[in-house]
Amino acid sequence: MQNAKTKSATPTAGVPSPAVPRHVAIIMDGNGRWAKKRGQPRLAGHRAGADALRRALRACRNHGVEYLTVYAFSTENWVRPKLEVTGLMRLLKTFLKKDEHELHENGVRLRVTGRIGDLPPAVRAELERVMEATKDHTRGQLILALSYGGRAEIADAARSLAADAAAGRLDPAAIDEAAVASRLYLPDVPDPDLLIRTSGECRLSNFLLWEASYSEFVFTEVLWPDFGEDDFAAALAEYARRQRRFGAPS
Ligand code: FPP
Question: Which atom, in ligand 1's list, is nearest to the CA of 95?
Answer without folding.
Answer: 16
